Amino acid sequence: MFGDNLFESKLLQETFAELLGMRASKPLECVGTAVESRAALRLAFEQYNHRCAGDTSRLPLLLRETVDLKQLPSLAECTELLHDHFEGETLIPQWFQGVLNYAGTITLPQEAAGAVPPTPPL
To answer: CB of 61 within 8 A of CB of 7?
Structure first.
């Protein structure tokens, strides 16, 4: 598992679908909601898509075969979810709240092929 790209593991295809809410069961209790998982997947897809120069045939297996990208939230929706989800009292360390606050203020590029959100400073 360590050193492997988990997006390339055919063995994880069913678990991946469950995390995204595509199946009735949730495989793990210690992970986010299906909505949060889909938002995280959108962000991962955008990074891979950028690296692959928009050639979706070069995407990892689970991104190519498991996911209908039309069912994922847009980049703008991901930012809104991130911002709204972490308002109020949380157990997030103070230093990381600054990163999340920064991410919530990013003006995202047009959702054209290859557009990815900027990486926040640490």
So the answer is: yes
Q: Is there a domain that residue 118 lies in?
A: no
In this structure, is residue 11 part of a structural domain?
yes
Q: How far apart are CA 84 and CA 18, in angstroms?
A: 24
pTM, rounded to two decimals: 0.63
**Please, are residues 46 and 59 in contact by the beta-carbon 8 Å criterion?**
no
The sign of the CA dihedral 30, 34, 36, 40 is: positive
> What b-and-e string marks burial along 78-112, b requiring 16 or more CB atoms within 10 Å of the CB?
bbebbeebeeeeeeeeeeeeeebeebbeeeeeeee
Structural domain contains residue 120: no
Mean pLDDT computed over 98-112: 55
Q: What is the pLDDT of residues 45-59, one digit of tens each?
A: 888 888 888 888 888
Half-sphere exposure of 51 (CA within 13 A, CB side): 9
CA 53 – CA 83 distance, rounded (Å): 28
Q: How far apart are CA 111 and CA 96, in angstroms?
A: 26
